[in-house]
Amino acid sequence: MKEVPKLSDFPVGKPNDAYAKYFIGQSWLAPLTTEQVPTYNVTFEPRCRNNWHIHHAQKGGGQMLICVYGRGWVQLEGEPAHELKGGEVFNIPPNVKHWHGAAKDSWFQHLSLEVPGEGTSNEWLEPVTDEVYDKLP
């Protein structure tokens, strides 16, 4: 198991084995709370990213990312990738295909908040290829 450096005051959690098939590289998951607004700290090693995915909702829903350490990327389908840095908040609307993960040269942590809604579900899709990822600065 890789040793994760001290990144922030949030816990790193355990290796994200339950979702490993949806990630390229190693990630760790720390549930912070599942009351009111489920919130998790997700830690990514450099170059780690999750697959394209969609947070479906009939009403409400979506995802909010709060970067707490390092540099990473988030990309909504059809838009350029957006660089995330510490302290930045990024809102992902429901029903929008997207991915997020670490920069090539940086560990990355974000808080992931699942916005409450009706008829919510997650759909995991194809990986973000090295060809696409390696074009990022």
Automatic annotation (TrEMBL):
<dbReference type="InterPro" id="IPR047263">
    <property type="entry name" value="HNL-like_cupin"/>
</dbReference>
<dbReference type="Pfam" id="PF07883">
    <property type="entry name" value="Cupin_2"/>
</dbReference>
<dbReference type="InterPro" id="IPR014710">
    <property type="entry name" value="RmlC-like_jellyroll"/>
</dbReference>
<dbReference type="InterPro" id="IPR011051">
    <property type="entry name" value="RmlC_Cupin_sf"/>
</dbReference>
<dbReference type="InterPro" id="IPR013096">
    <property type="entry name" value="Cupin_2"/>
</dbReference>
<protein>
    <submittedName>
        <fullName>Cupin domain protein</fullName>
    </submittedName>
</protein>
<feature type="domain" description="Cupin type-2">
    <location>
        <begin position="42"/>
        <end position="105"/>
    </location>
</feature>
